[in-house]
Amino acid sequence: MERKGVAQFGEIVIDFDRMELRRSGRVIPVTYLEFKLLRFFANNPQFVFSREDLIRAVWPERRRTTWRTVDNSILHLRQKLERNPARPVFFQTVHRAGYKFVPLDAEMKRARHDR
Known about the structure:
Layout: E1 6-9, E2 12-15, E3 20-23, E4 26-27, H1 32-43, E5 48-49, H2 51-58, H3 67-81, E6 91-94, E7 98-101, E8 109-111
Antiparallel strand pairs: 1-2, 1-8, 2-3, 3-4, 5-7, 6-7
């Protein structure tokens, strides 16, 4: 079994193997699709993705997924991870283009563990 490791940015820790998200040491509940979206962004920091890109990457099997689904999922991640969701630092809107994930200090520490 390949271990996926842990990513950390600021006070946020993402354990990809356990599908667990922590902020300041406290477990933050996330849905499967929120975690899938978070993993996609964590694997692609600093890149801008349109809503269509995100739908293809995170919801490829869903025919009725709309842009509102993406917007609501980003909103939920902001509410769970941002200090001030109204002024997001990590999940940024790039007007007329889409969204981009910007980890703290523009760099995310990622530890990979091999078995």
